Amino acid sequence: MTSNQKNKDVIREFYSQRNNNTLGEYLRNKAWDEDLDGETRIYLVKDSIGCVVLFFSLKCGLLFRKNQYDKLEEDERSFVDMLVKAKQEDDQETINNYYEYGSAEFSDIDRLFKIADKRIDSKNETRELGDGQYTLKVEECFSGIELRHFCKNEAYSYPDEFKTPIGFGIFWEVIVREVLKITSKIGCKYLYLFAADKTENSDIKKLVRYYKSALKFYECEEDDIIIIKPEYDDNCYGLIQEISKLPGNYEAVWQEFSDVYI
């Protein structure tokens, strides 16, 4: 957006009723500085005479998978905590008793013992490095690109002959191409977004269904992956998709909706 100074005037006419026009206010009042600072990259999609049809923004992000300890049930976690204490005290008799007790109570006692050993190693590492206060340890991290904003200009009059829904077309023909261009230079696994709709729950579900069916996003719990969600996106619904699958999804989605989006 900030590559052209004239865009400062162009965005003044942008309007969206979503979230009481807060997205329009963001574009007019905050987006320029964020784009200029490099915090968020804002993209304006214009028609042939320079009117803004839609804007979207991209931002680097991070997703992760919780470690095995955090996935445990409450009784399993309590057992691992007791086991860690016994192992740190080198109390072999208690450790043997825990193994016998745990074998009867839990389906995979050896897994819990391994998790306890990892907990001890992690505690020792934190103590040696001194980074515990500033570090969140997880099982695995995944690089991501967040589609932070994705909003059409409701003040724009669409030509009658334009039959393809604008959000659908721009996502697949503009946003996906830009994401693939970025990831041709840096490694990145996921594209994700938060379905931004603070109206009734039924509307949120409707928006989520659209993102899932037409844009091929899905809930991250399928892969046991956690999205870091800021307060800015409260009441929004997180969805992801693998960037490596975007080219295949691009081909499939145009074929799937060929009788509708013409």
Explain what you see:
With about 260 residues, the chain is of the alpha+beta class. The protein contains 9 helices and 6 strands, in the order H-H-H-E-E-H-H-H-E-H-E-H-E-E-H. Strand 3 (about 140-150), helix 7 (about 165-185) and strand 4 (about 190-195) form a beta-alpha-beta unit. The relative contact order is 0.14.
The first-to-last residue Cα distance is 29 Å
Helix share, percent: 40-55%
Class by SSE composition: alpha+beta
Beta-sheet strand percentage? 15-25%
How does the major sheet shape up?
6 strands, mixed
Uncertain segments are none
In total, the number of strands is 6
The value of Rg in angstroms is 24 Å
How many DSSP H or I helices? 9
Overall pLDDT level:
87
Order of helices and strands: HHHEEHHHEHEHEEH
Molecular shape: elongated
Question: What descriptive keywords fit this protein?
Answer:
single chain; alpha+beta; six-stranded mixed β-sheet; 6 strands
How is the secondary structure organized here?
Elements: H1 7-10, H2 22-29, H3 31-37, E1 41-46, E2 52-65, H4 74-88, H5 92-105, H6 109-129, E3 140-152, H7 166-183, E4 190-195, H8 201-214, E5 226-227, E6 237-242, H9 246-256
Parallel strand pairs: 3-4
Antiparallel strand pairs: 1-2, 2-3, 2-5, 4-6
Helix pairs in contact: 4-5, 4-6
